[in-house]
Structures are given as structure tokens and as C-alpha cells.
Amino acid sequence: MRIIEAEHIAETVRRLYIDANRNLPEDVRKSIRAARTQETWGPGAEALDKIIANFELAEKRGLPICQDTGITCVFLEIGREAHINGNIQQAVDEGVRRGCREGFLRPSVVRDPLNRSNTGDNTPAMLYLDITDGEKVRITVAPKGFGSENMSQIKMLRPSDGPEGVIAFVLSAVETAGPNPCPPIVVGVGIGGAFDKAPFLAKKALLRPLDQRNPNEYYADLEKTLLEKINALGIGPQGFGGRTTALQVAIETMPTHIAGLPCAVNINCHVTRHAMEAI
What we know:
Layout lengths: L1 E4 H17 L3 H13 L3 H20 L9 E9 L2 E4 L2 H15 L23 E7 L4 E8 L1 H4 L3 E5 L4 H16 L7 E9 L3 H9 L11 H15 L14 E11 L4 E8 L6 E4 L1
Parallel strand pairs: 1-3, 2-4, 7-8
Antiparallel strand pairs: 2-5, 5-10, 6-9, 7-9
């Protein structure tokens, strides 16, 4: 059994939280630059130029890529042979608290959804736990802006709706979102489970590198079909029109009940931020 002190968790979350807000993952940068080389519509091309200039400047100056530094989603994959000495939620929140202060990140979390006083430090984090093999803890910090989060949807489809129903629902969600989530977007789709599991799958799908398809060929083909149909909508970068409305579509699935077909869409803006480290 390997002992990991809660302070180690807190310090790692602090560092990843700041890094994720300042530096886009390389796969996201590459995808945005590729979209720019293919863009022939003037306003769309100009929007992509500004997006590229913005993330390059953020890295150079050590500043947040976006003024909305998001609600902090933290995914912990805890090995069975690892024991965390201390309270996990408190450790994660302490890391977010430090990162918010030291990284000069905008506090955007309220204590109560209706009594809306700001916590002042972006705590508490949205914490997702999973038990895996081994003795390490894999920490992924993914700040999620709410311009895109607000565009998310879930629908309890019928089994008879099939793949056609899934496609129609995803396209409807993206078209309804329009320019609001700051396209080009990344679209996470969760299919299966129950009412609560499908949105989790959709959010988890956003962590997948943009150059990786679903390992299941059937769902990889469905991702490709959805991406083509979404880009055919013509919403384009920042809603100005153009070839690229979405950079990628990622689908995650799990078993479900014979009577249901839960489907959720979690949209992310072009600032698809996340940083990961195994400790």
C-alpha cells in the first residue's frame, strides 16, 4: 500500500489549475491551426487568427486564456494500492483555492444556486472519482467555462430512436447553441447509463485528445458523421460563418436499460482546457 499525503494532492491541483488556464493542450492548438489553414471565409479566418494570437499571448505572458476561468472540474483516478492520507475533497479544494489566488484567476463560483454570494476562490471543485489498478493517482484538472456549459443538453431518447435519433438530438443541441459557446467547439456526447451517467460520460469525453477517435469502429464512424454534419451547419468560428463550427466530436458510452437510450451533449468552447499528472 502506497501512502499519498493530502498535501501532495492539493499542491498538484494548484499547479495543474494554473497551467490549464494558461496553456492549451498541444492537440487543441494543432486542431485550431489546422482549421485556420482550411478556412476560406474572411470573417471566420479573422476570428481564428485572433483565437491563435490569444492563446499564444496567454502562454507568453503567463495569463489566463479566457476571462472565464471556469468552474473547476477535477477527475481523480485512484489506484487500488494507493491510500490518500487526509480528506480528498478538502485537499482538492485547497489546491483550487491556492491556484485561484496565485494564478490571478477570476472567482466565478457562488455558494448557493439561488442565494448567489461568491465563494471568492472558485471552491468547491466539481470532483469525480474513479478506482483503477495500481498505486498511483492520476489527476486531471479541467476548468469549464459556463458560456459553453450552459449550452449542454440531455434527452431520454427511446431505444427505437436509434442512431438517427442521437444524430438529430446532437445537431439540434449544437444548432440551438449557435455562437454562444464561442466556436469552434468540441462536442462531448454521452450515450447510455442512466439519467445521471450520460452527462458525466459527455463531460469525460471532452478530456480525450482531439486526434484520437473512439476505439470502437462503430462509434468512431458516428463521431466522424456528427462532425461533418455539425460543420455543415455553417455557424463557423465565433458564429461568423465558415467551415469549422466544431474541432471534434467525442463519444463515450456505457450499458443502459432495455427501455431507455439516455443521450447527453456537453459542449466546450475552443478553450478546451485540461492538465493532467499522475503522482
